[in-house]
Amino acid sequence: MATIRLIRTNEFNNRMRDYKIFIDGHQVGTIANGETKEFPASAGKHTVIAKIDWCSSPQISIDLHENQTKNLQVGGFVNGQFLMPMLFGIILLHSAFSIFAEFEYFKYLVVPVFILLFYNITLGRKAYLTITEV
């Protein structure tokens, strides 16, 4: 029996939510933040995809041999772990500077970060998660 080992990265964005794991179109389980899980599979070609809410990873195809273990790493979108803390930081700076220094220009820094986040949950929802062979 072959095995598919999924390693989920430890990230800020989706810390409280589990990813649903699908092998060949069937949900085989979930994986929590920073967790590693193994899923048994038969030898041959398989497709693996991870989903969270309405977002997902691109589908990855793997070829397993008998008694082989394939390692796949799954995580959030590229640079996603930096965007949310950056957005909160900009909002806090904007609040502090607008109250104490009457400096109103930090709000314009929020716009590009918000656009990136909005894109990833709408048009980029099929690439919200990443899944790669390691």
Question: Can you tell me about this structure?
Answer:
This protein is an alpha+beta fold and about 130 residues long. The protein folds into 2 domains: about 1-75 and about 125-134, Immunoglobulin-like; about 80-120. Helices cover about 25% and strands about 40% of the residues. It has helices at about 80-100, 105-120, and strands at about 1-10, 20-25, 25-30, 35-40, 45-50, 55, 60-65, 70-75, 130-134. Helix 1 (about 80-100) packs antiparallel against helix 2 (about 105-120). The model has no long low-confidence stretch (mean pLDDT about 90).
Outline of this structure?
The protein is α+β, with helices and mostly antiparallel strands and 134 residues long.
Query: The biggest beta sheet, please?
Result: 5 strands, antiparallel
Order of helices and strands: EEEEEEEEHHE
What is CATH's topology name of the largest domain?
Answer: Immunoglobulin-like
Please identify, by name, the CATH architecture of the largest domain: Sandwich
Proportion in helices: 25-40%
Count of strand segments: 9
Given helix and strand content, the structural type is: alpha+beta
CATH C-level class of the largest domain is Mainly Beta
Number of helices: 2
Oligomer: single chain
Please, what is the CATH homologous superfamily of the largest domain? Answer: Immunoglobulins
- Report low-confidence residues grouped into runs of 5 or more: none
Our Rg estimate from Cα atoms comes to 19 Å
Distance between the termini: 20 Å
Whole-number mean pLDDT: 89
Instruction: Assess the beta-strand content as a share of residues.
Output: 35-45%
How many domains is the backbone divided into? Answer: 2
Per the principal axes of the C-alpha atoms, what is the gross shape?
Answer: elongated
